C-alpha cells in the first residue's frame, strides 16, 4: 500500500488507534520502515515505540513479525491490538498443538497482520519452516538491548535472531529499545548486521522526574516518613529480594498504607491480582522485585523508590521511568549503601568471568552515579550518550541542594595532562596512581614515574582524584574510548581547554562510607 500523502498516514493513525497526532519522531520512523529501510529506534519507555511497528504492520502487505522477550507482555499487546480491531496473535510455548496448527493456517491465509514471537520459538526449525511459507512484511525486534552482553538484560537467544531472519529471506528490520548506551547501540547494530540502518534517537530526558539519592540509614523510618508525605498517592517500591519485598509490604500495611507485594515467587493468581489491584487503585503501593513493571502502563505513578541499589543505571532508568508517565510529578528516590553494592557483587560470584566483569562495570557506574555531586539528570543522560547542558536542572537533589564547590581548573588541567602524557591509553585507577605518585607495578612497567605529571597531585587522596576524573568525564573534557574498554581519551572540548583554559567549578562527592544501617545488616 502506498501512503505518500502526509495526511493519509495520519488518517490511518486516527482510524485504527484513535490518535490524532504522532508523538516525537514516530512518523519519520514509520515512513522509514515503510520505505523498506532498516530502522533502529532508541526511545525512552512510554514514548510510544510499539506504534512504530504496529501501524506499519497494518499498512504493509503480509505478516509483521515482532520478536519480544516476555510472554506476559505479548499477551497484553495482543489483547490491546485485538481491541483496536487488529488481527494480532502470538506464538510461544503456552500454545497447544491445536492452537499452533490453527495459528499457522491463519498466518498463511493472510488473516493475521501481526505475530508476536518469543525468541525461543523462532529458534525452532518447525517455526522457521512455517514462516518461510508466509509472506513476511518485516521483522521488529523489541527490547533489542537484550542482544548485548554490555546491557542490563542479556538474553543469549537474542544472539540467534540475525541467523533466523536470514533464513526468512530479505526484508526490512526494525530494532527498538528503551535503553542503549552508545556501546550497547554499537553492539546491537553489529549483531544484527545493521550498521547501515537509519538510527532514530529520542531524548531520554524525563523533565518531570525528580531524582534523589539518600544514604541507607534508618531506611524504614525514612521510607515511612516519605510515604506519609505522599499518602494516598500511587507508587512503586523496588527491593532486591523476594524476602525483602514481603517484609516491606507487611511493614507498610502494619503502618496503615495500602500496599501489596509483587515478585516471581508468588502464586501467579496472587501476583496478577496484586498487579490488577494496583492498576485499579485498590492498593496505592506495590512493593516489588524488578519482575514488576515491563509493559505496565499506569500513567499516574507518583513515586518510584529503590529500597535497595539497582544492578545498573539502565535498569534504574527503566524502573524510575515508570513514574510520572502522565507528565506530572514523579519522585525517584534511591536508598544507597556500599553494602548493597557488595551484596550485588556476591550474587555474581558463580557466573563466568566475562559476565562477572560486565556486571561489575555496571555496578561501578551505579556507584559513580550515587556518589557524584553532579546533576543526576546530566549524569543519566550522559550515560545514554546525550549531553544535558543546563547548568541547574532544578529537579534533582544535587541541583536543589548543591554540594560545596571549589575551583577545579588546575585539577582538571592536571588530569588532562596526565591522560595526554600517558597517550590516552589508560583508565581511571592508573591515572590516579600517576597523579598521586603511587609507584605500583603498572607505573613501574610503563616507566610513568618519569612523567612530568607524576606525583603532582600527591596532596589529595585517591577518592578526590577519582571524583575529579569522573566529573571531567561527565562535563565531557574526557571521553571513553569505545575501542579500548576502560581507557579515557581527551575530547575536542578537552583539547580546547588545554589550549585555552577557563575556570571550572567542581564539587566533592557525597560521602556514603560512614553510613551503616544496623537494621539492614541482618
Ligand atoms: P513504549 O513501548 O515506548 O514504552 P508504548 O508503545 O507502550 O511505549 O506507548 C506508551 C503509551 O503511549 C501507550 O499507551 C500508547 O497507546 C500511547 N501512544 C503511543 N503513540 C501515541 C500517539 N501518537 N498518540 C497518543 N498516544 C500514543
Ligand atoms: Zn539536576
From TrEMBL:
Residues 30-198 form the Helicase ATP-binding domain. Its EC number is 5.6.2.4. Coiled coil: none annotated. Residues 219-374 form the Helicase C-terminal domain. It catalyses: Couples ATP hydrolysis with the unwinding of duplex DNA by translocating in the 3'-5' direction. One of its GO terms (molecular function) is hydrolase activity. Its cofactor is Zn(2+); Mg(2+). Keywords: ATP-binding, DNA damage, DNA recombination, DNA repair, DNA-binding, Helicase, Hydrolase, Isomerase, Metal-binding, Nucleotide-binding, Zinc. It is an enzyme of class 5 (isomerase). GO terms for cellular component: bacterial nucleoid; cytoplasm; replisome. GO terms for biological process: DNA recombination; DNA repair; DNA replication; SOS response. The keyword DNA-binding applies. Belongs to the helicase family. RecQ subfamily. This is DNA helicase RecQ. It comes from Chryseolinea soli. The gene is recQ. The chain holds residues 1 to 522 of 728 of the full protein.
Amino acid at each position: 500500500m502506498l501512503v505518500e500523502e502526509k495526511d493519509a498516514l495520519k488518517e490511518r493513525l486516527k482510524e485504527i488507534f484513535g490518535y490524532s497526532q504522532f508523538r516525537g519522531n514516530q512518523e519519520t520512523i514509520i515512513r522509514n520502515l515503510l520505505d523498506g529501510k532498516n530502522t533502529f529506534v532508541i526511545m525512552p519507555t512510554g514514548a510510544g515505540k510499539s506504534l512504530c511497528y504496529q501501524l506499519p504492520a497494518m499498512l504493509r502487505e503480509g505478516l509483521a513479525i515482532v520478536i519480544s522477550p516476555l510472554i506476559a507482555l505479548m499477551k497484553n499487546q495482543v489483547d490491546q491490538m485485538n481491541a483496536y480491531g487488529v488481527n494480532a496473535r502470538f506464538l510461544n510455548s503456552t500454545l497447544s498443538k491445536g492452537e499452533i496448527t490453527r495459528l499457522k493456517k491463519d498466518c498463511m491465509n493472510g488473516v493475521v497482520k501481526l505475530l508476536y514471537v518469543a525468541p525461543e520459538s523462532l529458534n525452532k526449525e518447525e517455526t522457521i519452516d512455517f514462516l518461510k511459507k508466509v509472506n513476511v512484511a518485516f521483522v521488529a525486534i523489541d527490547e533489542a538491548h537484550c542482544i548485548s552482553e554490555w546491557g542490563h538484560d542479556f538474553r543469549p537467544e537474542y544472539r540467534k535472531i540475525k541467523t533466523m531472519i536470514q533464513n526468512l529471506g530479505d526484508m526490512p528490520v526494525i530494532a527498538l529499545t528503551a535503553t542503549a548506551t552508545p556501546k550497547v547501540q554499537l553492539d546491537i547494530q553489529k549483531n544484527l548486521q545493521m550498521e547501515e540502518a537509519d538510527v532514530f534517537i529520542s531524548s531520554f530526558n524525563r523533565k518531570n522526574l525528580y531524582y534523589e539519592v539518600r544514604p541507607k540509614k534508618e531506611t524504614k523510618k525514612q521510607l515511612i516518613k516519605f510515604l506519609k508525605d505522599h499518602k494516598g498517592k500511587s507508587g512503586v517500591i523496588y527491593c532486591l529480594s523476594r524476602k525483602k519485598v514481603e517484609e516491606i509490604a507487611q511493614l507498610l500495611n502494619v503502618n496503615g498504607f495500602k500496599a501489596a507485594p509483587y515478585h516471581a515467587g508468588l502464586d501467579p493468581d496472587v501476583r496478577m491480582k496484586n498487579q490488577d489491584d494496583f492498576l485499579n487503585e485498590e492498593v496505592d503501593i506495590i512493593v516489588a522485585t524488578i519482575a514488576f513493571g515491563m509493559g505496565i502502563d499506569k500513567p499516574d505513578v507518583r513515586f518510584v523508590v529503590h529500597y535497595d541499589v539497582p544492578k545498573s543505571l539502565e535498569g534504574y532508568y527503566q524502573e524510575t521511568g515508570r513514574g510520572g508517565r502522565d507528565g506530572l510529578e514523579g519522585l525517584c528516590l534511591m536508598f544507597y549503601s556500599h553494602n548493597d553494592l557488595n551484596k550485588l557483587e556476591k550474587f555474581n560470584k558463580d557466573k563466568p568471568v566475562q559476565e562477572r566483569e560486565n556486571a561489575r562495570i555496571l555496578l561501578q557506574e551505579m556507584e559513580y552515579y550515587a556518589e557524584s555531586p553532579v546533576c543526576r539528570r546530566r549524569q543519566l543522560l550522559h550515560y545514554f550518550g546525550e549531553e544535558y547542558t543546563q547548568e541547574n536542572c532544578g529537579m534533582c537533589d544535587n541541583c536543589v541542594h548543591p554540594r560545596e564547590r571549589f575551583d577545579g581548573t588546575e585539577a582538571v588541567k592536571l588530569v588532562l595532562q596526565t591522560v595526554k602524557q600517558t597517550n590516552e591509553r589508560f583508565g581511571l585507577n592508573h591515572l590516579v596512581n600517576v597523579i598521586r605518585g603511587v609507584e605500583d607495578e603498572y607505573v613501574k612497567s610503563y616507566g610513568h614515574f618519569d612523567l612530568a605529571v607524576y606525583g603532582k597531585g600527591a596532596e589529595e587522596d585517591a577518592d578526590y582524584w577519582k571524583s575529579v576524573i569522573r566529573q571531567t568525564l561527565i562535563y565531557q573534557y574526557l571521553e571513553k574510548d569505545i575501542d579500548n574498554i576502560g581507557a579515557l581519551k581527551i575530547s575536542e572540548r578537552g583539547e580546547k581547554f588545554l589550549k585555552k583554559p577557563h575556570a571550572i567549578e567542581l564539587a566533592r562527592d557525597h560521602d556514603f562510607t560512614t553510613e551503616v544501617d544496623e537494621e539492614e545488616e541482618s
